[in-house]
Structures are given as C-alpha cells and as structure tokens.
Amino acid sequence: MTSSPPSPQDLPLSGVRVVDFTQVMMGPVCTQMLADYGADILKIERKGAGDLSRSTFEPVHGADNPIFCSLNRNKRSAALDLRDPAMLDAVRALIAQADVVVNNFRAGVMERMGLGYEDCRAINPRIIYAVGTGYGESGPYAHKGGQDVLAQAMSGVMARRSDPSVPITVYPTALADYSAGMHMVQGILLALLHRVRTGVGQKVSVSLYNSMLAMQMQEAAMIMMQDSEVNWAAMPLSGVFDTQDGALVMVGAFKANPLQDICRALEIEDLSADARYCNLTQQFKHKPELQRLFRERFASNTRAYWLARLEEQDLLCAPVRDLREALVDPQTLHNRMIMEGPGEGQTVRFVASPIEMSAAPVALRHAPPRLGQHTEDILALARAGAAQ
Length: 388
Hints:
- The structure is a single chain.
- By secondary structure, this protein is of the alpha/beta class.
- 39% of the residues lie in helices and 15% in strands.
- The protein has 16 helices and eleven strands.
- The chain is elongated.
C-alpha cells in the first residue's frame, strides 16, 4: 500500500503529543499505533545507541534495522543524554506541553531520573502517564526484568500445548509484547476520553504478565469456576494434518454434527453413528483412534483436493502456510496490509495497521527516523514551551 498522507486534521489523534521513552517492542508498537492515527510522537532515545531494536540484527544496506523500521514509522527521534541537566530540563519542558508520556522501562527507572508519574503530574496535571512493565509496578516480581518469552512462561501460556507429548517450547511470535502494547493503546485512549470529560490526567499501567493472563480468560474461568481444563488445540475433531503435498488445518466445530460432515468430506462411513464417537464426551475418550483415521485419509490425496472436499461440507479449514506465502496472498494485498514508502536509502516495506477507518486511512507520513534525526526540531519545541 502506497498512499498520499492524509491531511493531519483528518486523523483522529491529530493534536495529541506523546513524549515516548519506549524501546524494543511493547512500547513502540503502542506508540506506532497512536502515530498512525495522527499523534505527534517525540521519540526520546539514548544518545549514541538509541532504541535497542535498532541493533537487533545487522542492518540491511546500511539502512536502519528492519525490526526497528517495523515499529517506528510516523515518529520523530531525538537522541539525548539525560544525564545532562540541560537535556533533562528540555524533556521536562516537552512534558509540560504534552498530552501523553509513555515508557516501558523496568520499575523505578523513570523515578530515578526524576520523570516518574508524580514528577510529571507536578509539571503537567493533565498528563496521561502510560507505563508498560514485565510483571507490574509493585509486587514480588516488580523489579525483575520483563521480556516476552518470560511472560509466556510465567503466565502458563508456554505450558499450553495440543498434547502432553508435544515438547514445551517458545511461541515464535511476540505474543506478550504485541498484546500488552495494544492494551496500552486502549488504556491511553480511555484516559484521553476520561480527560475530555473531567479535565484530569491519570496513570495507565499494563504489563506483559497481565496481558498473557487476560489472553487466557476462558481457560482461567474454567479452572477457577469448575476446576476443569479446556484446551482449544486438543479438541477431538480439530487438528493439523499432512496431505500428499502440504499440511492443512481443520476445525470440526460450530455445527450440529460436525463428525458426520467430516466423514462425508473424507469419504468414509459415518462415525457419528458409532457409540464410541456419538457425542463430544465419547469423541474425547476415543480421540487417538479418530485422529489416526483422519491422518490416514488426509495422507491419501493432495491438500487442494481435501480442502475442496471439506469446503463442500461447509467445514472450517485452511492451508498451513509460512509467512512468506501469507505476505503475497491476494487477500493480504486486497486488505492493503503491506505499506511501503521511501526510507533512508531504500524503500521500506512493512505490515500496515490492522484497523481500517474509512475517514482516516493510515499512511506513511514519516519514514522510520534515523537516530537523532529530529533532535534539533524537538529541542526547539522544548525551548519554545519553556519560553511561554
């Protein structure tokens, strides 16, 4: 998707200024969402090093790291040494004019710099102060280093798998970072709405740990209310199955008798008429036999053949693909989920926002910034604010 930037006043967060101390993913994915919809993001980075995601992998052709680019479009960067009292005063002047301050440092870091919530509220009583941590701002784990994989492990997410025989492993996409970042966006927007009504700012706090617990709300309720486990990946009529030329996934659910329809699709006798498989309880008891039959049938023909047969029975199914395939899929392109534009010496390409607004389309207004690219502009804002 290459598009002309919309007029700033057409964007829902136009006029909202954010002083952004975030790095890596949880915080930057939050502030990028705000930036996409019009907020002015002033990204404060460490002089000489910058956001850690700038150096996650080796740069490509001298450009900024693709990991950094994917999380930092539509922002401005200032590289500052906050050990310098003059630079710290400049940041305070920015906060005095800002609507939102965001950080995802370990608990206590901002306070030690004199930029904690109470410090910022003293500067600007209307400030919305958003904090992202690993485990929470207080409690037994507050000062532990937080990270996506650790949150997966501590929250129970990592231990959840389709079958006990499957080894416990790290989920290879940053679930905790992304979900916590989106929760932070929601919290900031709610706080902005609350401030419209009351004129009062507030603190918004999210954590990787809490976001992972919240993601398991259904499973947790079953444990706490019925002392029972539910595992959506272990349902007897669902699974991933190899065919002659690739894997597919089938979900046998949301129908009066899904097993009957599966059997029609697989061209075998109606197993739902067998007492061993006549209801969900029995299907769970005899899941190994059912899954063995499914595997044998799917292995006998091609993926395209079986997907067509399953779809004829209106069964939920899809091919299992890798990300390279998904990125060039016609639906991906139709949904305008690939954004591109000029970057530092090369075209930058990345996944666009998943939220489509008819009156406020997302566009690449600013390429991901070079470290310190806008330092002078941002310091000029601080000086102008301090002079008022």
